[in-house]
Amino acid sequence: MTIEDKLKSLILSKHKSLRDFCITINIPYSTMTSILKRGVDNASISNIIKICSYFGISVDELSKGNIVPISLVTSPSLISEYTEQEKKLIIEFRMLSPEAQSSVCDFIKFKLASESTKKKPEKDNLMVAESQLPYDDKKTDV
């Protein structure tokens, strides 16, 4: 996937159309399509700065073919704390629509909750399982 494809994907993840994005950041639609067709390297620096500022991504990294949040570039100590996989996940998460981001957060909460139940002692797991059994009104304990 080229940087232009990544950029277009980012734009469309946040806007209903390329035209909508162009109106939002005040760049002519023809200019934006030219950037995506001819390449980021051939675009004017002022347009690249507008695009990067809007998304909070690094101009330097974009010129290298990467979409990286400016916060990761300006905080080198922070960036060294993340694995490559974590950095990629952060970037991809930010490319998602707000609805998709919410779904990812819900999924993570679900996974964390299921992981925490796995860590409980065996006795507790049995108690939970027993409490979840359906009520049997025919059963009589004396």
Quick tags:
2 domains, 10 helices, Helix-turn-helix domain-containing protein, 434 Repressor (Amino-terminal Domain), mainly alpha, Lambda_DNA-bd_dom_sf, Cro/C1-type_HTH, 70% helix, 142 residues
Any overview of this molecule?
The protein has 142 residues and is mostly helical. The chain has 10 helices and no strands. The chain has helices spanning 3-14, 18-25, 29-38, 45-55, 59-63, 70-74, 76-80, 84-95, 98-118, 122-131. The longest helix has 21 residues, at 98-118. It is elongated, with a radius of gyration of 24 Å. The termini are far apart. This is Helix-turn-helix domain-containing protein. InterPro entries: Cro/C1-type_HTH, Lambda_DNA-bd_dom_sf. It holds the Pfam family HTH_26. It comes from Megasphaera hexanoica.
As for the CATH topology of the largest domain, it is: 434 Repressor (Amino-terminal Domain)
Name the average pLDDT.
79
Instruction: Name the CATH architecture of the largest domain.
Output: Orthogonal Bundle
> What structural category arises from helix and sheet content?
mainly alpha
**Shape call:** elongated
